[in-house]
Each structure stands twice: as C-alpha cells, then as structure tokens.
Amino acid sequence: AAAMSETNKLFHAAIGAACGNAHVQSWYDGLLNSSMRLARVAYEQAPLHGSAYKQYYPPVDSEHRGMVDAITRQDPDAAEQLARQHAVLFRDRVISYLSESRSDEIDVQ
User: What is the pTM of this model?
Assistant: First the structure.
C-alpha cells in the first residue's frame, strides 16, 4: 500500500509539474499532499481486498492511463473529464470509509 501510494503521488505530482505554472503547481502540490494523507488513513484503516480491490483499482488504472493518453494527445477536455471522474472516485472511496461505523471497535471500559 505504501509503495502504491508513493507511485500515485509521483504520478500526480508529474502532472502538476508539467503544467508550466509555478503557482498552479504549488497549489496542486498542497492539495495533493492533503489528499494523500486522507487516502493513507482511509486505505490503512479500511484496506481494499478481494472483490473491493477488484472493483476499485481497475477504474483507477484506467483513469490514469486515460489521463496519460489525453495529455499525450494534447486533449485538455478529455484530460479534465478524466481528472474529474478520478476525483469523484477518490471522494466516494473516502466518504465510504468515513461513513462506516466503527463504534464496535471502541473499548469504552
């Protein structure tokens, strides 16, 4: 999970660096760092295994590959659409984690 998280961060950081605008890159890097912290908590506390893994990661991989393709083709509309889909997928994963009840794991004694 740690290696996958680091690779994901490097992937997204490379996209931010490629924008050619230091201010946008700085803002994006800050957003990326915050989201990576949130992702790490969600993935370490509620890791994806089995069917959940098979359901979540193929779309992530497909979106990453699609972003690379759109950037290579210099198609900003396609890249933006994929980035939006990717953000929604991540948001939904984190919301799912935050919505889970953990009350049975708390020892109040």
Answer: 0.78
